[in-house]
């Protein structure tokens, strides 16, 4: 078992071990700290503020070569900590006196661009005067122009909009030192290959390039060979095995619903003791506090805890004073408490090895154990890679419903009556109640019910029914994926609502004559209109125009943004049509896939 991140040749797909090992040993204590990696002191302070205790494996592997100025190709997915892996070295070397942008991060979607820009903001909290600017399609040019004029040290943008600014000469990349391609495979799938290559080719030759991608199709290999020199190639060894006596399940849940989901899990799962894993020190404290306020006996353990305090808390868990520990990976190392029947991965781990360490905290001493993993829409790929790396199947567990919770409450209620019938105290109350019934002439069941209400102490016994599905549907995933993390196939079919979104036909003024491809249409419209791949229906490219199915209720701003969009240099002039739907029975996504396969045979 190897917890060291490996710097080595990058395989076509994230690496698996040839042979799974039987039992996962404890995490390697020799992993470097952020300070060991030569990160700027102000950035270190920000990391401590956000509560990162240790570099994740991808960070431990990527930061040293990046700090040395080497080019880098990293196989990494969302959730591994790759953003900090490239952001920290950039921030540690930024020159505040240079006005023209020094660093450019290209990301496939506006959502990711914003997320990356926010991460830069958090990590640079103690660097006064540093400006990070997100630029993406769909936002007005005015805000972006103002930001560019003021001077941005770091620009995070979607390729289409970056190209637009370059063409308008409103973005000066002549002094660029660092270029990061984030989710490179995704950018190609969205039809941004030409834009990405243009940016790579027209920016200064001596810049440092870091390319991150979840997969390594030949086309990305070609780009890295062509534009990167002597690149360090990193991937994290995923040699892991999970114990057979631990049942593994996952719950698919929106980020905002995680706490609610956890409270339901705590009600319906019968557990003895539980350890809940989160990513940061702050999160351990916050979550433990929230659980305590809901009546659970929970405590936090993290790397800040003095050894004595840590031992006391673990002692309490062993003796049953505490039932729930909320922990970071670092704090839970080596924890061996037989009572732990459940491990909950509240935040998905960065890598499969951490997952194995985490779930190894249950199923001790020959007992069986339960491992639960919360997976948000963006993290679906990580689920697939954990399954592959651990060679195990993680079953889906539906989010416990209101009915599940309520029937558990009823069972617990009746069990508690049974358990107390022989309690010596009942003799005292029996006399009092008999007197009350005789005096007031009320049925015994009414009195018992009134007592149960008193015992509830003002809280409702049953959960109210869930709101109707439309009101609680989590935000639609813009890039739907199957459970292996691959983009979910979209089946072409008759004109009908896709998900809950009715589609309409739109006409755009570019066609075969303008040499447009389905990929570039999807990419441009998704980027400029802030749409997800799931918003596309059929695409029918005609000689001088194209019919595209898009959501019927596009907002006015989106339509305006799309009217201004250019593909192959031509304004697309999007308009809704009442004509028949596009003829070709192919979805935009399928077209895109086909296009992808045509360009990169063998994938
Ligand atoms: P990313 O893969 O960059 O999207 O990061 C996934 C999540 O991990 C984000 O919520 C980060 O804030 C968090 N994260 C990144 N690095 C660390 C670290 N070293 N320790 C704890 N959390 C981290």
UniProtKB/TrEMBL annotation:
Its main location: cytoplasm. CDD domains: DEADc, RRM_EcCsdA_like, SF2_C_DEAD. Pfam families: DbpA, DEAD, DeaD_dimer, Helicase_C. A motif (Q motif) lies at residues 32-60. It catalyses: ATP + H2O = ADP + phosphate + H(+). Residues 18-30 have a biased composition (Low complexity). Residues 245-405 form the Helicase C-terminal domain. DEAD-box RNA helicase involved in various cellular processes at low temperature, including ribosome biogenesis, mRNA degradation and translation initiation. This is ATP-dependent RNA helicase DeaD. It comes from Kineosporia babensis. The lineage of its organism: Bacteria, Bacillati, Actinomycetota, Actinomycetes, Kineosporiales. The gene is deaD.
């Amino acid at each position: 078992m190897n917890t060291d991140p490996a710097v080595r040749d990058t395989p076509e797909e994230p690496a698996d071990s040839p042979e799974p090992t039987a039992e996962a040993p404890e995490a390697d204590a020799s992993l470097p700290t952020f300070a060991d990696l030569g990160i700027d002191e102000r950035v270190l302070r920000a990391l401590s503020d956000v509560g990162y205790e240790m570099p994740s494996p991808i960070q431990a592997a990527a930061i040293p070569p990046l700090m040395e100025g080497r080019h880098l190709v990293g196989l990494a997915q969302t959730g591994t900590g790759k953003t900090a892996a490239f952001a920290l070295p950039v921030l540690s070397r930024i020159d505040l006196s240079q006005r023209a942008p020094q660093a450019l991060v290209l990301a496939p979607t506006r959502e990711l661009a914003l997320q990356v820009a926010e991460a830069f903001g958090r990590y640079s909290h103690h660097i006064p005067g540093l400006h990070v600017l997100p630029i993406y399609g769909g936002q007005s040019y005015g805000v972006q122009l103002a930001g560019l004029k003021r001077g941005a040290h770091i620009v995070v943008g979607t390729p289409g909009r970056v190209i637009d600014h370059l063409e308008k000469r409103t973005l000066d990349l002549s002094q660029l030192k660092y270029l990061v391609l984030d989710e490179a495979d995704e950018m190609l799938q969205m039809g941004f290959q030409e834009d990405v290559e243009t940016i790579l080719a027209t920016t200064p030759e001596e810049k440092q390039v870091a390319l991150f991608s979840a997969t390594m199709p030949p086309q990305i290999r070609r780009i890295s060979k062509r534009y990167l020199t002597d690149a360090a190639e990193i991937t994290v060894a995923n040699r892991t095995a999970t114990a057979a006596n631990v049942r593994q399940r996952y719950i698919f849940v929106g980020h905002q619903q995680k706490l609610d989901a956890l409270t339901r899990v705590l009600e319906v799962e019968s557990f003895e003791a539980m350890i809940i894993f989160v990513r940061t020190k702050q999160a351990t404290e916050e979550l433990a506090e929230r659980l305590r306020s809901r009546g659970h006996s929970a405590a936090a353990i993290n790397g800040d805890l003095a050894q004595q305090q840590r031992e006391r808390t673990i002692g309490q868990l062993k003796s049953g004073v505490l039932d729930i520990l909320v922990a970071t990976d670092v704090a839970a190392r080596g924890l061996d408490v037989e009572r732990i029947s459940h491990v909950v991965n509240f935040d998905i781990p960065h890598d499969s090895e951490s997952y194995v360490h985490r779930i190894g905290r249950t199923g001790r001493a020959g007992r069986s154990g339960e491992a639960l993993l919360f997976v948000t829409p963006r993290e679906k790929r990580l689920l697939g890679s954990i399954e592959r790396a651990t060679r195990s199947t993680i079953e889906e567990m539906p989010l416990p419903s209101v009915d599940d919770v309520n029937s558990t409450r009823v069972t617990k209620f009746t069990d508690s009556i049974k358990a107390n019938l022989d309690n010596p105290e009942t003799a005292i109350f029996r006399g009092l109640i008999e007197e009350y019934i005789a005096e007031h002439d009320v049925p015994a069941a009414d009195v018992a019910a009134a007592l149960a209400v008193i015992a509830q102490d003002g809280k409702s016994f049953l959960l109210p029914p869930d709101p109707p599905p439309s009101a609680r549907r989590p935000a639609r995933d813009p890039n739907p994926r199957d459970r292996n993390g691959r983009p979910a196939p979209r089946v072409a079919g008759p004109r009908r609502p896709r998900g809950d979104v009715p589609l309409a036909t739109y006409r755009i003024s570019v066609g075969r004559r303008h040499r447009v491809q389905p990929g570039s249409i999807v990419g441009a419209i998704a980027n400029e209109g802030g749409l997800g791949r799931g918003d596309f229906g059929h695409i029918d490219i005609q000689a001088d125009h194209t019919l595209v199915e898009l959501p019927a209720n596009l907002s006015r701003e989106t339509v305006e943004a799309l009217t201004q969009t250019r593909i192959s240099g031509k304004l697309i002039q999007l308009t809704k049509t009442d004509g028949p739907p596009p003829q070709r029975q192919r979805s935009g996504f399928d077209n895109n896939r086909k296009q992808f396969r045509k360009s990169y045979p063998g994938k």
